[in-house]
User: Fold these one by one.
Assistant:
Number 1:
Amino acid sequence: MHPFQYVAAKDVQEVVSLLEQYGDRARCMAGGTDVIVQARGGRFDLDAMVDIKAVPEVMELTLNGAGLRLGAATPCYRVYEDDKLRATYAGIVDAASIIGGIQIQSRASIGGNLCNASPSADGIGPLMVHNAVAVVAGPKGTREVPVDAFCVAPGKNAMTKGEFLLRMEVPAPAAHSGSAYQRFIPRNEMDIAVVGVAVAVTLDAKGETIQSARIALAAVGPTPILAKAAGDSLAGKPVTPENIQSAADLAIVAASPIDDMRGTADQRRHLVGVLTKRMLTKAIERARGAA
Ligand SMILES: Cc1cc2nc3c(=O)[nH]c(=O)nc-3n(C[C@H](O)[C@H](O)[C@H](O)COP(=O)(O)OP(=O)(O)OC[C@H]3O[C@@H](n4cnc5c(N)ncnc54)[C@H](O)[C@@H]3O)c2cc1C
C-alpha cells in the first residue's frame, strides 16, 4: 500500500481544506470499517486519510420535537442504545443493530454506510423511508441533499470535491407512525444483504387506515431504491392483506435485481415480495403501539 498521511481533523474547515487540497487522493474516515478495508485492498491510492471523529458536529445525536440530528460519524451502538430513538425511528435502529457484529457497531456509523453508497447497505433504506436529508459541508458552506438522491451509482454519492457529510436530519414522524427494516442473508449475521426492505407507515388514529407509506429496497439495483409507487398505493387504504399484497407486488416491479453469487434475480424478486409484506406488517404493528 502506498504510504499516506493520517490526519485527525479538528473542525469542519480543516476537513474541507484537506479534501480540497488532496481531491481524489484523500478519503474521510468515520468508523473506518469500509474505508480501511478498501484502502488495504488497493481500491484507491491515498495521500491522506482524514479522520473526522474529532469534529464535534459529526458525533452529534440529538433528538427533539423537530426530529433527529444524527452526526455523520456517530457509531451504530449509540443509535440502538438510545431508547427514545428506538421508539421513534425503529427501522433505523433495526439497521444499526445488524450492521456487522458488536465490534463493527462500536465503530461503524450510519453516515459512513450512506457515504459508501453500497447498493446492499443496510442503513440507507431506513433513512429513505424516514424522509431523511443529508447535510453536506463544503467550500461554499452547507447544502442539503435528500437521502433518496444521495446515492448515484454503486459506491458513488452526490458529493463533489471538497464536500463531506456533516449529519443526517430526520423529521419527526407523525403520530401513529411505525417503521421497520429487515434483510435476507444466508447466515445469521456478518453477511451482505441479498435483499433488504425498509418500510415506514403512518396510520389514522384508529390504526385501521394507512395515511401514508414509504418502501425502500436494498441489493436489488445499482443504488438503494425508493419504491415510490408501492408506498403511494397504500395511501388512504384500509390495512388489509390484499392491500399489503398489492403494495408488495408493486415493490417487486420497482426492483431491478441481477444474478450474482449471492442469489438469482428471480430469488431476489421473490424476497422483495416476502420482506415487503413482513415489513409492512411489522411497521403497522409498531404504529399501533407494539415494540
Ligand atoms: C466485518 C464487517 C461486517 C460488515 N457488515 C455490514 C452489514 O451487515 N451491513 C452493512 O450495510 N455494512 C456492513 N459492513 C460495512 C461497513 O461496516 C458499513 O458500511 C459501515 O456503516 C461503514 O461506516 P464507517 O463509519 O465505518 O465508514 P468508513 O469506513 O469510515 O467510511 C465509509 C466510506 O464513506 C466515506 N466517508 C465516511 N464518512 C464520511 C463523511 N462524513 N463524509 C464523506 N465521506 C465519508 C469514506 O471515505 C468511505 O469511502 C461491514 C464491514 C465489515 C468490515
Note: The domain at 56-171 is CATH 3.30.465.10 (Uridine Diphospho-n-acetylenolpyruvylglucosamine Reductase; domain 3).
Number 2:
Amino acid sequence: MAVTVFFSFFMCINIYFFGLAGTMDSPFAWIYAAFMLILYVRMMITKNWSRYRSLFQIVLAVLFMISFIGILYDERGSMSITETQFQNAETPFCQIVIPIMLIPLALTKTVIFPARMTGHFASVVSMLLIWFIVSVTIGRGWCSWVCFYGGWEDGFSRVPRKPKIKLLSRNRDIRAFQFAFLFFIVLVSLASLSSVYCEWFCPFKLVTEYPQITDITSLIATVMFIGLFLGLVIVMPLLTKKRFQCSTLCPFGAFQSVVDKVTNIGIRIDSEKCTGCMQCASVCRFFAIDTETIKEKKGQPEITCAKCGECISVCPQKAIDFAYKSSPAGKILGTIFRTGSRIVGAAPEAQKGCQSRTPKSAAGRFVAEILEPRYLFVFMAFTFSLMISNKFVPDALSRIWQAIAGGMR
Ligand code: SF4
Ligand code: SF4
C-alpha cells in the first residue's frame, strides 16, 4: 500500500508538470489528467500492468488519429498531402522513420524525411530527443507503452478469445523477417536517399496523412497502404492475436529491439519456478517466447520482447517479472537494490548470489520495494506515455466535444 501511495504521489507531480503543462485552462486536459491518474493508481493496486497498459494504448491510438487528422484539416483542409507540401517539409516527423534516416544522415548529412527541423507538433529535433530519452530508459518498451500506433493492433488482437491461426512454431522466422526487412529498407533508403518505407509500406497512412492520387504510382502506393492496414493491422491481429505489423514490417520495432540492449530493466523468466505450460508464449503479442526459450531455460524472452507485461499477468507460477539486467549498470542496481528480483541474462550460478535479501527494518523494506524494477519501469513508461500524449489527447477530446455540441444544435 505504501508503495502505491508513494508512486501515485509522484505520478500526480508528473501529471501536473507533463500532463497539464501549458494546457491547464482546458477542461479536457483535466479530464485527461484524471483518466491517467485513475488508470495508474488502478494499475498499481491490481498489479495488472497489461490490462491497463492495453486500455490506455488503445485510447491513445484512437485519440491520436482524431487529433492528427483534425490538425491536418485545420492547416490544409485535407488529409492528403500534395507534392508541394511535401517539398516544403510540411509533414510531421514520425518515429517509425528514425532507423531509416540515421544512416543517410550520418553518411550524407541528408535528412531523407522532409519534415520541419524544429517547432510545430512533431519536428525532427523534438521527436529525436524524445526517442533518445525513451530508448535509453525503456528501450523496446516504447512499442507497448508509448507508441500511439500500436494501440490499433493491440485492440484488434484482443477481439477474439482464441487465435484462429497459431504461429508459435514460426516465431523465430517472423523475428528474422522483421530484422531482414529493417536491413532491406535501410539499404534501399540509403541507395535512393528517400524514405521508401513512408512512400510504399506505411499502413498508418490510412489514419494519418496520405499522398494525393495523381498518377498510377500514387494509386499503387495508396492501394499498398490500404492493403497493409487491412492485412497487418486488422485481419492478422484478429486471426492470430498478435501485433502483426509491429512484429513484421515496422522498422522502428526491430530497431528498438537492438537499442534495448542499452537499457537496464528487462523481463526475466525464473526457470526454477517455470513448469513449461507455455501460457506466456500464447499471450505474447511480439513473438518473443518460443518453445526453446522455455525448454532451454534461457531465463529471458527473445530479443523482440516489448516489456508489455502480458506474460507476467498470465504465468500461473509467478515465474516472470521485470528485473535488472546483467549490464554493468543493471548489475550495480540489482546488487545494491536486490529485493527478490534476480538479474536478467545472468548465469544460474550468478543468480544464486542475487537471492532475496529482505531488509530487516520497515524503512529498509519500503526503500527496497520502491526500487523494485517493476515499479520503476512502469513509472518511467507511464510518464513517457504521458509526455507524448499531453497535447493530442486534450485536443482530440475537445474536437469530439465540439462535434457532439455541434450535432446537438
Ligand atoms: S507461463 Fe510461466 S510457467 Fe508457463 S511456461 Fe511461461 S514462465 Fe513457465
Ligand atoms: S515476452 Fe512478455 S513482456 Fe515481452 S513482449 Fe512478450 S508478453 Fe510482453
Note: The chain has 21 helices and four strands.
